Every structure is written in C-alpha cells, then in structure tokens.
Amino acid sequence: MFSFQSKWRYLFMFLGIQLVVMALLSREGYQKRVTYFIRIFRKPDTTGLTGRNHTAGITAGDVYANLSHLAKAHSHGDGMPYCPKTSPFIGGPIHVSFPSRLTLAEVQRKNPLVVRGGRYRPPDCEARHRTAIVIPHRNREHHLKFLLYYLHPFLQRQQLNYGIYVVHQAGNYTFNRAKLMNVGFREAMREEDWDCLFFHDVDLIPEDDRNTYTCDSNPKHAAIAMDKFGYKLPYKMYFGGVSALSPLHYLKMNGFPNNYWGWGGEDDDIGVRVSLAGMYITRPSLKVGRYKMIKHMLDKGNDVNPKRFNMLAKTRQTWKLDGMNTVEYEIVSREYLPLYTNITVNIGTEAGLHSPPPTPAPPAKELADKPAAEVQSNDPADPPAEQKGQSEK
C-alpha cells in the first residue's frame, strides 16, 4: 500500500512529466512531427488538387481546377454586376511543372474564353480591374508557351479584364529589356485605358493566385520570392522579374531607362527611379509572392552589361533625361494571335535607332603595335589627330 505522501509524490511527478511533454510539443520540430502523424489518419484530399508546395508545406492545386464551369456561363452584356472584391475562384498555391509535349494549341484549347490578341474579361460579371501584361521577348518561344499555359488561368481566377502583350525585339543586336518594356507600355495604352501594367519576365511562373495582378497605391514588386533565390528577397531594393505600375506611377518616374544593353542593371535603376519620384515599393508576403523560374542558360545576345554599375551611379542625374520621354522605336509588325498580341519592334542599337552598331575597340596589344598616327580616339568629343597636331603648334 502506498502512503499518502507517496501518492502526492507520484502525482507531482506525473504533472511534471506532462509539463515537459507539453513544452517539447510546443517546439516547431515536434509540432511538425505530430502534424505528420495526425495527417496519416486523416482522409485523403478529394478536392482534385495535386502537387505539393514544399516550402510552405501545404497542398498546391491545378491552376485550371476552378474554371471548368466558366465556359457554360452566359455571354457578357450590358448591366452586368461588378465582380466580387475577392474572387471566389482564387485557390492559393499552384502546382507548377513543365510537360515536355505541351503545345500552344493545347493552351488555346484549355482557355476557350480567351479571344484574339490574348484578351479576356469575366463572362458573368464586370471586372473591377483592367490589367495589361507586358512581356519583353526574343527567341524564347519555349518559355513563352509555359508562361501562357499558367498565366491565362491564373488571371481568369482573379476575375480580371486583361490583355497579354509580347514585345519582340527584332534583329540580332544586344537585348534591351527595359526599352522593350517602354515600348510595351506605350503600345498597350494606345489600345486600351489599362489601369495597371505588369512587366513580366517570360521565364517566371507564379505559384500562388493570391498574388493578385492588380496595382497598389505605389509601384509593386510581385516576384518577391523566386525559387532560384531560395524563395527569399535577394536584397531590399530588388525590383526584378515581375513588377506592377499604374500609368500614373509609370509617367511619374519617366518610365524605364533606354540605355541598358545586355543583362543586368536596369531593375536596380528602376528601383532607384521609384524612390527619386517620391514613391516606395510595395510587396506581397513571401508565402504569396512565389515564382518558379524555367531553367535556362544566359541568352545569346544578352551578355552581361559591363557598364551597368557606372550607369547606376548616375541614375540620379539621368532619370529625367532618359526614359519614356526619349524612347525611339519602329513597329515592324503587330499580330493579334489567339493567346497574345505580338508586337515586333526595331529598337535600334546603342548608336541610335538607324545608326549601325558601334565598332568595338581593338585589343590593347593591337593598338600598341600600330603607329601613333593610325591610333584615333573612340570619343566623339575628341578631335581627329591632325586637328590635335594643329592645336599643339
């Protein structure tokens, strides 16, 4: 028989053990283990969602799952009610994969309500937002196919009135992403009074439709968490990948720079312009602003821009002199294709719209081997050698 004191001793020991167990369970690692074992005994998910968002630890779904009944809706007409402020079709995380046999014909078949030029509006309500998607492009048809496959249903789930513009740089001269986006802004606004423009890299796929493609009161950086950066923001002023500006924002900051030829620098220049124009960058949460990048090598004709750091250092002096107010280009063709509007454009070279590409300077050793009279400066402000000689006499 236990004594009365023994009973109390064992009771206190039992309560102490319970407190220790509760403390351990409160730790994140133990919570995950308990959640895992509880999940084993739950019924499997029957909502038709597939895939897994590994970082967030929640189920990711088919981007087309919520849209099957829309094709049966009545045609759009006058007197339509406004769409809800929060779309009922938004489902959260999206499973993203890249099937090898996907074709544009299959993308078109799965998006029957998208009309010529890549335009869409909800069939049963009046959209509250009108968004244009501008995609700078050259020789990336494989990536464009996957982006269109995910982007069309992604935008439809948000009940947007939208259009997709692919701005294709003609010729083989060095790629200029920011200048193409200036072209896209001007040409899209000529067609419709869009209230928001998303500037979208062709190789980035959104992974959560709670990341709404609408504008905020300040410029918005949507691609805050890419898989290539471990789903984290690489640095505070980063403004690359996918960004959104209203026409007012865009004009206030004089658009984007036109003189960044090659890879790198223009995103940071744009971020600085936002600040210089008296605005700031807004962002969704890390859980929502997630993107998967289609892996690829650096494109031919898009080599790293060696001048980018020097140019960035001068942004404060140049942003009002170079941008939307100085962009020059020529439209080569405009095609209203089933899934997007394709605008092929000549944006010229560093030397100008109609000037031939600048001749690269010869290597230093080659210059050293030449007689002094044959070596001339590449600086247009520098007088010819014979003029130098006259001025020295």
Automatic annotation (TrEMBL):
Annotated segments matching region Disordered:
351-393
Q: What is its EC number?
A: 2.4.1.-
Main location as per UniProt? Golgi
How this chain sits in the membrane, per its record, is: Single-pass type II membrane protein
Gene3D superfamilies associated with the record: Spore Coat Polysaccharide Biosynthesis Protein SpsA, Chain A (3.90.550.10)
CDD domains from the UniProt entry: b4GalT
Q: Where is the Galactosyltransferase N-terminal domain?
A: 83-216
Catalytic class of the enzyme: transferase
Q: Which cofactor does it need?
A: Mn(2+)
Compartments, record wording:
Golgi apparatus membrane
Hey, which pathway is this one from?
Protein modification; protein glycosylation
Tell me the InterPro entries matching this sequence.
Galactosyl_T, Galactosyl_T_C, Galactosyl_T_N, Nucleotide-diphossugar_trans
This protein's GO cellular component annotations are: Golgi cisterna membrane; Golgi membrane
Catalytic reaction annotation: N-acetyl-D-glucosamine + UDP-alpha-D-galactose = beta-D-galactosyl-(1->4)-N-acetyl-D-glucosamine + UDP + H(+)
**Biological process per Gene Ontology, one example term:** carbohydrate metabolic process
What domain of life? Eukaryota
Domain called Galactosyltransferase C-terminal: residue spans: 221-296
One example of the protein's molecular function in GO is:
metal ion binding
Q: State the function annotated in the UniProt record.
A: Responsible for the synthesis of complex-type N-linked oligosaccharides in many glycoproteins as well as the carbohydrate moieties of glycolipids.
Extract the PANTHER family matched here.
Answer: BETA-1,4-GALACTOSYLTRANSFERASE (PTHR19300:SF34)
Protein family: Belongs to the glycosyltransferase 7 family.
State the protein's name.
Answer: Beta-1,4-galactosyltransferase
Q: Which organism is it from?
A: Anabas testudineus (Climbing perch)
